[in-house]
Design a protein that fits this description.
Layout lengths: L11 H16 L5 H15 L5 E9 L2 E9 L5 E3 L3 H9 L3 E3 L17 E9 L2 E10 L7 H17 L3
Antiparallel strand pairs: 1-2, 1-6, 2-3, 4-5, 5-6
């Protein structure tokens, strides 16, 4: 059985590289997208400081995301494409890094404690399959290094999973 190790570095680029290494080892030989999403959610929630939610939404119809595996408080189950930070990430097929979710037009407040959010689309062959969603109670929690690190992790998830 794989056991995670606490990542002890203040260098964000090194942190994200080690997080990706741990995830790659965790999913080695496993192709199930739900199992991999569950383990990635747990790994991120345990390793990344300052989060109150980490998980997935999957595109189940062309216009709706449905909740997938996550860690944190209960969440919205369905999100329309184009609505909120997650729906906008799908509609625009690009990551959304929001320093203050209360200032984001149409923000969906699943947890009122969330103040900042990073949503990364899961892409394969130019198509959006879903999103990796990270919420924090800390305004401005995510920076460009976090975005790049989680985009790489999302690519690794898609490559490792039969979506």
């Amino acid at each position: 059985m794989f056991e995670t190790a606490t990542i002890e570095t203040t260098d964000k680029i090194a942190f994200h590289a080690e997080l990706a290494e741990q995830f790659a080892a965790l999913v080695q030989g496993e192709r199930d997208p739900i199992a991999n999403a569950a383990n990635l959610s747990a790994l991120v929630f345990a390793q990344v400081p300052g989060l109150n939610w980490a998980g997935f939404y999957f595109l189940r119809t062309p216009d709706e995301l449905v909740l997938g595996p996550f860690q944190g408080r209960v969440a919205c189950v369905r999100i329309a494409v184009g609505r909120g930070v997650c729906g906008t990430a799908v509609a625009e097929a690009r990551s959304q890094r929001v320093d203050d979710v209360h200032a984001f037009p149409g923000h969906i407040a699943c947890d009122a404690a969330s103040r900042s959010e990073l949503v990364v689309p899961l892409m394969r062959d130019g198509a959006v399959l879903g999103v990796l969603d990270l919420d924090s109670p800390v305004p401005g929690r995510f920076d460009a290094d976090d975005q790049a690190g989680f985009e790489a992790l999302a690519r690794l998830y898609v490559e490792a999973s039969d979506l």
